[in-house]
Design brief:
heterodimer; A: alpha/beta; Aconitase, domain 3; 3 domains; B: alpha/beta; Glucose Oxidase, domain 1; three-stranded antiparallel beta sheet
């Protein structure tokens, strides 16, 4: 691989052993993939920061790095962490786990991580053609497909190394010739977040290894629906981008690659309804945790939901039902609002992710969510049953519990 | 009988590289997260890889599997070398972080590895040097 003089010097230890090793990681991965050179990135996003996910060894590595005074060379954000610190949850998680999660956060913050969220595009929005090294699939899909920025779907540890050296390998989505669709997927126009999320998952299934050109999502697709579609797409497909007609920068030129003769699939309303029927939750009288915010909500979305609850006064029964609204730090709700919401069973949580938390430990046995991504991962990682429900239905049901 | 399997260096393989040891082979891909225990150096279903030459087709599953190889280093449970059929990014990242020599088989050589496991041969010993994995076959 071609390396600049500056990069050679870093490999040779000019900035110290840790920077040398970090660059070596990026170079070796690039070489294995056949990359010809490195490229500077203006934003790295690290995944894999839950103690439940990376364990003692991820923690050891991050502390070793932070302890040797490594500082990120580019703007860096990281994924949300396990929900072990919230006042109610911390009573359940043992001190060891909480402390280790805290040490991971501290090490990353010491190196320069600016935020902990799965929506780095709301914390620092990249511009078109900007080169990034992002892990976290929903963010990668959004960056490439909505903004037109350039990032591969990096692994968590590689993104950490890329943050340290401010570079990644020039390959895949960084190159013009790799950003082209190879399959046409016709979909129906979703009418709700639940439908958009399900469509994303079904479209991902038919384009598991090829970038699709998506036709039919409709012009009036809201930001919520777009994010629901992309985050669930990434659950079923390994590709880092999709071309969405009318949305993705350059979609007009891309349409030429999927003309007559190319592979095509379609996702019908019948297929959509069959899927939803199988996974749908209902308002059963069981202890249930309702989760909205996978991926994290924007602050505007949080405020609009919170405002609907602030007109209410009191809870009437079904105390074992609770609603979590997930977002990133920077929104000040005020103590009074937090107290009023808590009385209604509603919690706005910052920087955390229930998927990477062992929900069983805090006594949760059933989750209802509007996200197919959460639906898919919660049983696997968090160990509890999950069901799908549209966001509006969740809110209506929950508002029905209060007066 | 001797079997010579051609290999290429990937990372941490200096020009005068030579290691010998017992071979531990998995014929199916390994999920480093979940199947490798960094505390003990044990791999699910195939036993300890500590100070051995660990051979598998490629890594699958979570990218944080790289940290598991680093964990082997922290605990002093590293294999002497890893030899893979296909290089994948999870293994490369982990090998660099953990300073484990990583080599890849020249394509088409995998059949020789599979062949080694046939017929009840066990406790295979081998040496990695000069672009080859040289295996001494012993019958149990």
């Amino acid at each position: 691989m071609y390396l600049t003089r500056e990069e050679e010097a870093i490999i040779n230890g000019e900035l110290g052993e840790q920077y040398s090793k970090a660059l070596k990681v990026v170079v070796k991965v690039g070489e294995a993939l056949g990359a010809e050179k490195l490229i500077k990135v203006s934003h790295a996003h690290i995944s894999g920061i839950s103690y439940y996910n990376i364990g003692d060894y991820g923690l050891n590595l991050m502390e070793d790095l932070a302890g040797s005074n490594v500082v990120f060379s580019t703007y860096t954000t990281a994924n949300p962490y396990a929900s072990v610190f919230t006042d109610f949850a911390s009573a359940f998680f043992d001190y060891g786990v909480r402390n280790k999660q805290l040490r991971i956060i501290k090490a990353l913050a010491k190196m320069g991580a600016r935020a902990f969220t799965c929506v780095p595009y709301y914390v620092r929005r990249p511009v078109i053609d900007e080169h990034l090294a992002w892990a976290e699939s929903n963010a990668v899909l959004y960056a490439n497909s909505v903004i037109g920025a350039r990032t591969n779907k990096e692994g968590g540890p590689l993104a950490l190394m890329a943050a340290i050296v401010g570079r990644t390998y020039y390959w895949g989505m960084h190159r013009d010739d790799e950003r082209r669709p190879d399959v046409l997927v016709n979909v129906i126009t979703p009418l709700s977040i639940e439908e958009a999320s399900t469509l994303g998952y079904l479209a991902g299934k038919v384009s598991a290894n090829t970038i699709p050109y998506i036709r039919g999502l409709g012009k009036g697709l809201s930001e919520d629906m777009l994010r629901a579609f992309l985050s669930s797409f990434a659950v079923a497909s390994s590709v880092p981008m999709v071309f969405i007609e009318g949305v993705t920068p350059g979609y007009k030129g891309a349409a030429g690659f999927v003309g007559t003769g190319s592979t095509r699939y379609s996702v019908s309303r019948e297929e959509l309804m069959n899927f939803i029927k199988k996974v749908r939750g209902d308002g059963r009288s069981e202890p249930t945790l309702y989760v909205i915010g996978c991926p994290h909500l924007s602050h505007e979305e949080v405020i609009s939901i919170v405002n609907r609850f602030l007109t209410r006064c009191c809870r009437r029964g079904e105390e074992a039902k609770e609603l979590w609204i997930l977002t990133y730090k920077g929104l000040e709700l005020g103590k009074d609002v937090v107290r009023r919401l808590a009385k209604l069973g509603v919690k706005v949580l910052f920087n955390v992710c229930p998927i990477v938390t062992k929900l069983k430990v805090i006594g949760v046995s059933r989750v209802v969510t509007d996200s197919v991504k959460a639906l898919y991962y919660i049983p696997k990682v968090s160990g509890v049953k999950a069901y799908l429900m549209d966001r509006e239905d969740i809110l209506r049901e929950f508002l029905g519990l209060v007066t | 009988m001797r079997v010579r399997v051609a290999v290429n260096p990937v990372v941490n393989v200096p020009s005068d590289f030579r290691v010998c040891g017992e071979l531990v082979i998995s014929t199916s891909p390994i999920s480093l997260l979940g199947e490798v225990n960094p505390e003990s150096g044990e791999v699910l279903g195939i036993g300890s890889v500590v100070n051995k030459i660990f051979i598998f087709p490629s890594a699958v599953g979570s990218t944080v599997g790289s940290y598991v190889l680093y964990g082997l280093r922290v605990k002093g449970k590293c294999p002497k070398a890893i030899v893979v059929k296909d290089v994948d990014t999870v293994t490369i990242v982990g090998a660099v972080l953990a300073d484990i020599p990583l080599l890849r088989l020249v394509s088409s050589e995998w059949v020789k590895i599979v062949e080694l496991l046939r017929g009840g041969r066990s406790r295979l010993q081998g040496c990695l040097e000069d672009g080859y994995l040289v295996v001494e076959e012993r019958y149990s």
